Amino acid sequence: MRAVVLHGEKDVRVDEVPLPQPPRPGEVLVEVLRCGICGSDRRAYEHGLGQSRGPHPLTGHQGPVVLGHEVVGRIVDCGADVAEDFAPGARVAVDPTWSCGRCAACRRGQHQLCSVAACSGLTGNGGLAPFMLAQAAGLALVPDQVPDDEAAMAEPLAVAVHAVSRSALQPGERVFVVGLGPIGALVALTVRALGAGEVIAFEPSPQRRALAPALGITAVLDPASGEPPPRGWADVAFDCAGAPDGLAVAIRTTRPGARIVVPAVSHGSTPVPMSQLVFGERALLGSLGYNGDVARAISLIASRAVDVRPLLSSVLPLGEVPAWFEDPGVGGAGLKVLVDPTG
């Protein structure tokens, strides 16, 4: 089968690769209907990340890897010990993370913190291919009324849902969001769906700021304008940018006793104004991936509590994906490019 394979730093190719092995106990073989591509895929491309030198303890994978982890597909085969709901023919959103089920974090129910965690598309072959293997434990059934394009947004929406759950958001609370990339936009949609009051965002891109009305955002500030964010205004803030000064901006906007959640990963040095945390007794919380949140994301999409359609850009055939990595403008102006693996 044809697949998008990462061979190393800035080396992505469409290759012929073998079909996946038959699923082992607790696994399913999925026919991929749509797969999103995102910032994590781009970072893997730019830095050659995700290739295991030795077999990964969960996936067994090593060497060049098929990219893609935002997947909706149809089950075509099941290993032993798979729940009967996930029979062949079922359409599912895939949780691409693999956990061991045995380490201390897994025993606590914190599978996203598994000591030997893997992720399809990074340390195991992913969904930029016609077929992939997935752990059955994280699958979410997709209702008939949810189109494939929208269901493919379940994985990034799950990241936002998990971050919002970490914030312990209460109805009517005011929210500040730093960065309106896909995760920031989905955080804004999620807090609105869960009853937030006013939502203000901080975003330098005019194209992304233009999405604010569709995201239910009260106001969006341009960092280049010189207009300072409101100090002490927010009950909850989210740093979804990972920019060097993004966290400091998020903290400054919050009132004493507020919560600041960070689902973004900064790859540089991030200054933290500790005096504002201590003297304001603010809580700073990390948020990693998701834990059962893919099913919650599908439920929000199916009920139209969260409308992901304004974020969708275009659907590329598999053969055009390497060109997207070289120039993301290939996918159009929207926030989320999807791939049809049959193309």
Structure in words:
The chain has 343 residues and is α/β, with parallel strands linked by helices. The chain folds into 2 domains: 2-153 and 308-340, Medium-chain alcohol dehydrogenases, catalytic domain (Quinone Oxidoreductase, Chain A, domain 1); 160-286, Rossmann fold (3-Layer(aba) Sandwich). It contains 11 helices and 18 strands. The strands form 4 sheets. Strands 3, 5, 6, 9, 10, 17 and 18 form a 7-stranded mixed sheet that branches. The chain has a 6-stranded parallel sheet with strand order 13-12-11-14-15-16, with helices on both faces. Helix 4 crosses helix 5 and helix 4 (154-167) packs across helix 10 (293-302). The longest helix has 14 residues, at 154-167. The radius of gyration is 20 Å and the shape is globular. The N and C termini lie close together (12 Å). The relative contact order is 0.16.
Query: Compute the gyration radius: what is it?
Result: 20 Å
Q: Biggest sheet, in brief?
A: 7 strands, mixed
Would you identify the CATH architecture of the largest domain? Alpha-Beta Complex
User: Strand tally, please?
Assistant: 18
Shape: globular
Helix content: 10-25%
What class, by secondary structure content? alpha/beta
CATH superfamily of the largest domain: Medium-chain alcohol dehydrogenases, catalytic domain
Q: Work out the strand percent.
A: 25-35%
Number of helices in the DSSP assignment? 11
Strand/helix succession: EEEHEEEEHEEEHHEHEHHEEHEHEHEHE
The average pLDDT value, as a whole number, equals 94
Using the coordinates above, name the CATH class of the largest domain.
Alpha Beta
- Measured between the Cα atoms of the first and last residue, the distance is 12 Å
Report the uncertain regions: none
Number of separate structural domains: 2
Q: In the CATH scheme, what's the topology name of the largest domain?
A: Quinone Oxidoreductase, Chain A, domain 1
